[in-house]
């Protein structure tokens, strides 16, 4: 079943699939325009149509697709499919490690991930093999910032609890302190890891009359900080001063579980913790402890370890913890833009040209 298509099959596909983008036929689909000279690409997920259209219309590549968005390609299948390909489009559920790169072999020149995060990639192994890596920053900044603000307000104003109470009969008389939360007006907002997304979040929060923005990072980022008038502080000060602490850093060996007991214990018990970066930056046991003992007031998480977080996980038992299923960039326009950028990065990489967004390895 898994094979690159024949000329007859190709003509059929060109008629029914290439022009219409209506790809059918089980989890694995094959699309190509000509045999022989085209470079081979494996796409590990049914990515949004913009990106597939770009690959189709390039006339540069033939690609094979794991034609499902509901289940990731099984590892065994992935290891077989990548054999001999020139390039790979992946999403964040695929671990791109030495085993996979060995399975792909020496033809693999370009890896294009449809994500801003790259903790699923073994950059050292990619560098060692001279494989160029494209990723999709910037196009998702607005969507992620918007969702972060929504999650922050949902958590701080206890919206999930409130709708639950309204629906299940908990709504008695109007009460003076019932379902009170914490407001942004006059608050200090802390950003852990100031980049494009942190700036975009602060820009959206400023009209809520935030008093002060503070941030911490490996080093001061005056270029970005000046846009939002944010003050650089130590990690300790970030924990101590923030009424709202938004985590925006990448997951790296340095940031793994950087949000732990030590940080939570310094936060105010009225503080709200928000994470839309990667679950791995948080020690979830420590977070559970901080939330359940009232060390902090609430947490909003779009990312967890693992994903999906099992429904039996203790964090799901807490009223003051709002958990979303990793949807920060999930708007139609953004996901299409990510898909298009991933496709364009790949094509440029294969042409030996600079990609639009390329990771420096
Ligand atoms: O989390 C989403 C991404 O890295 O794009």
TrEMBL record:
Record organism: Scomber scombrus
Q: What is the lineage of its organism?
A: Eukaryota, Metazoa, Chordata, Craniata, Vertebrata
CDD domains with a match to the protein in the record: GDH
Which protein is depicted?
A: Glyoxylate reductase/hydroxypyruvate reductase
Instruction: Give the family per the record.
Output: Belongs to the D-isomer specific 2-hydroxyacid dehydrogenase family.
Q: What InterPro entries does the entry give?
A: D-isomer_2-hydroxyacid_DH, D-isomer_2_OHA_DH_cat_dom, D-isomer_DH_CS, D-isomer_DH_CS1, D-isomer_DH_NAD-bd, NAD(P)-bd_dom_sf
Instruction: Kindly state one GO CC term assigned in the UniProt record.
Output: cytosol
| Protein origin, superkingdom | Eukaryota
- Record domain D-isomer specific 2-hydroxyacid dehydrogenase catalytic: where: 41-358
Q: Does the keyword Oxidoreductase apply?
A: yes
Q: Which Gene3D superfamilies match?
A: NAD(P)-binding Rossmann-like Domain (3.40.50.720)
The UniProt keyword set, sorted, is: Oxidoreductase
- One term of GO molecular function: glyoxylate reductase (NADPH) activity
An example Pfam family from this entry, by short name, is 2-Hacid_dh
Where's the D-isomer specific 2-hydroxyacid dehydrogenase NAD-binding domain?
149-328
């Amino acid at each position: 079943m898994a094979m690159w298509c024949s000329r007859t099959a190709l003509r059929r596909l060109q008629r029914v699939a290439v022009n219409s983008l209506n790809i059918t036929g089980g989890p694995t689909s094959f699309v190509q325009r000509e045999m022989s000279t085209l470079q081979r690409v494996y796409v590990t997920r049914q990515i949004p149509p913009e990106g597939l259209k770009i690959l189709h219309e390039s006339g540069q590549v033939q690609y094979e697709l794991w034609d499902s968005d509901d289940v990731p390609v099984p590892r065994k299948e992935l290891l077989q499919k990548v054999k001999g390909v020139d390039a790979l489009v992946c999403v964040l559920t695929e671990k791109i490690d030495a085993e996979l790169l060995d399975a792909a072999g020496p033809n693999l020149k370009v890896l294009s991930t449809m994500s801003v995060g790259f903790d699923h990639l073994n950059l050292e192994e990619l560098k060692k093999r001279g494989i160029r890596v494209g990723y999709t920053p910037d196009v998702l900044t607005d969507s992620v910032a918007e969702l972060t603000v929504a999650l922050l307000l949902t958590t701080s104003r206890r919206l999930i609890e409130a709708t639950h109470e309204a629906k299940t009969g908990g709504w008695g008389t109007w009460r003076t302190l019932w379902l009170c939360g914490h407001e942004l007006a006059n608050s200090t907002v802390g950003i852990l890891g100031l980049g494009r997304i942190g700036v975009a979040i602060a820009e959206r929060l400023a009209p809520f009359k935030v008093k002060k923005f503070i941030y911490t990072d490996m080093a001061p980022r005056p270029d970005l900080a000046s846009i939002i008038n944010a003050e650089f502080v130590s990690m300790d000060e970030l924990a101590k001063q923030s009424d709202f602490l938004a985590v925006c850093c990448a997951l790296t060996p340095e940031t793994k579980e950087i949000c732990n007991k030590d940080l939570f214990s310094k936060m105010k018990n009225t503080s709200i913790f928000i994470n839309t970066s990667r679950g791995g930056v948080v020690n979830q046991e420590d977070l559970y402890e901080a939330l359940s003992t009232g060390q902090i007031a609430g947490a909003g998480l779009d990312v967890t370890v693992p994903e999906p977080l099992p429904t039996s996980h203790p964090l799901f038992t807490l009223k003051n913890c709002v958990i979303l299923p990793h949807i920060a960039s999930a708007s139609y326009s953004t996901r299409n833009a990510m898909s298009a950028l991933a496709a364009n990065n790949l094509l440029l990489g294969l042409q030996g040209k600079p990609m639009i967004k390329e990771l420096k390895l």
